[in-house]
Amino acid sequence: MNYHWNWGIFWEPAPNGTGNYLDMLLSGLVLTIETAVCAWIIALVFGSIVGVLRTLPSKAASRFGFAYVEFFRNMPLLVQLFIWFFVLPEILPSGWGLWLKQIPYAPFYTAAIGIGLFMSARVAEQTRAGINSLPRGQKLAATALGLTTAQAYRYVLLPMAFRIIMPPLTSEFLSTIKNTSVAITIGLIELTGQARAMQEFSFQVFEAFTGATVLYLLINIVVVIAMRFLERSLAVPGYITGK
Amino acid sequence: MFANFDFDVIRRSMGYLFLDGMTFTLTLTGLAAFGGLIFGTLLALMRLSGFKLLGRVAGLYVDLMRSLPLVLVIFWFYFLVPYIGQWLTGSSRPIQVGAFTSSLVTFIMFEAAYFSEIMRAGIQSISKGQPAAAQALGLTYSQTMRYVVLPQAFRNMLPVLLTQTIVLFQDTSLVYVLSIPDFLGSASKVAQRDGRLVEMYLFAAVVYFVISCLASFGVRRLQARIAFVH
Lengths: 243, 230
Description:
The complex is a heterodimer.
Chain A: H1 21-55, H2 59-73, H3 77-91, H4 94-102, H5 106-133, H6 136-144, H7 149-164, H8 166-179, H9 191-202, H10 205-234
Helix pairs in contact in A: 1-2, 1-5, 1-8, 1-9, 1-10, 2-5, 3-4, 3-5, 5-7, 5-8, 6-7, 8-10, 9-10
Chain B: H1 7-48, H2 52-67, H3 70-89, H4 99-125, H5 129-136, H6 141-171, H7 183-194, H8 197-225
Helix pairs in contact in B: 1-2, 1-4, 1-6, 1-7, 2-4, 3-4, 4-6, 5-6, 6-8, 7-8
């Protein structure tokens, strides 16, 4: 193989003047985590609401939830990001469009919202599955106690459902982290973007990508370990995941 | 809102979008699903083989692929495939690989990790009596797998495999990062050439949406029709 390895490249100064190449990758890592956390908050909030809507007795509510999930699930994430980033400012009234185009850090906000909504459809499916997995008696007992529908969800169904769906939510969160790399196409220089920039500046392709790979693996390991603790403390006794 | 909407740009580029772009996307999806299924089944068999080392290697591969973002994997293979080619053919310099081959290798290697998890679940869903009966009949391990276990596992997991293929179909749009003209890539080329981002991206979104919706509707019908074998 006539490739010149140079693992010391990480400690050489990067041409963007902010330190060495390792600092470049680490700043990408920080942006990846920030984007993923913001997107995850959006995904959890919207996903829970839509997931609940799909389990309500109201036909209209569950039909809306179904349409929402299908809408965000059947388009590639990349296309959705392009629509938020390139199309939305053009089809809004011109004043709003202009305002949107002038927002600083637009790629960051677009990525957080776009990935958040994309993931919310998946979170909604998990939430719905969690609520539906509860025995029917729980809802009936809550109603018999005189709780309103809202109270039944707030105090009985959701606390149980969320504890049951912790493991699948962990893997959805990991997908959110991985999906932030798609935002490279709208100019968000996160971890993959920084690895790509490092490769272009230094010509050390494989060192750059190895660096990014190791950092992604580290995030995965940290998240998996943290979530395992959380899952264990939240597991419902008597269920498969419980003790 | 749609006052300046130019439908004509879509009509004019229809041939390019579908004959070039969509053909690339669908061919890539089909071949990658096929290759990924074969390699994924091999990985699943390795993990279930009982050979510790073999299982460990396959497990590490699957975990590695599943913890990396597809965009990074696409970049990895884009630069790696010429060197792999050089190593395989024994030539003196990295060989030139076309955009299609490079992305096909990427998607087969990446999707195999996901398909292997599905096939592993499928193989484990077959009751122990089946391989035991096959062995009692005197079938060898490979005959047991080939004639008894894998056909049933495949049949049971068909809806899940097809759903994963729909995800793959959407994921192929990510070859955009290599400026390869798949369906989205060619829509984007026209969009930038004619300054018609709104029309082209909305049209691309509608096409992906319709195809994925129809496909998942078909999978749901299929799921209702085939019975699960234990």
